[in-house]
UniProtKB/TrEMBL annotation:
Keyword Cytoplasm listed: no
CDD domains (alphabetical): NAT_SF (cd04301)
Protein name as annotated: GNAT family N-acetyltransferase
Record carries keyword Cell wall biogenesis/degradation: no
Listed Pfam families: Acetyltransf_1
Keywords annotated in UniProt: Acyltransferase, Transferase
UniProt-listed Gene3D superfamilies: 3.40.630.30
Domain N-acetyltransferase span(s) in chain numbering: 10-153
Amino acid sequence: MNITETTDCQTIANLNQTVHQLHRQLYPDIFDEYNAQKALGFFESIIDKPEFTFLLVEEDKQPAGFAWIEKRTYPGIAYLDTYQSIYVHQISIENAYQGKGFGSRLMEEIFDRAASEGISRIELDYWTANESAKTFYHNKGFQPYRETVYKHL
């Protein structure tokens, strides 16, 4: 298992299909069908932004998954202190590699990167119907501290 940073938009767009299709299955009223060209265009538009990092995990030089992370700085305001975090936008592991430690290894890499930059907070969100994500993140020590709700009219 090897983890590297990447700017290969095509590989990221391809790997994004797995998580996108899961979201589509769970929330068909929100997520459109996966469109490879749209995904590629989206990742091309953000891949070079300095706050974003894309980590590629490979096995025997074959892409197994990726993580999209962002370094965030929250400015202090009257009632909040200034702080930094690493925000995990997505982790996606190809079906053939799921349950084999690839996601765990990506999380370890994210934890190590945060620690090396003196950042002590990792943040993320996941769709509540995604029970496997909920279990995975809970097992990694994540705990809820804020909840987002909606009402469909």
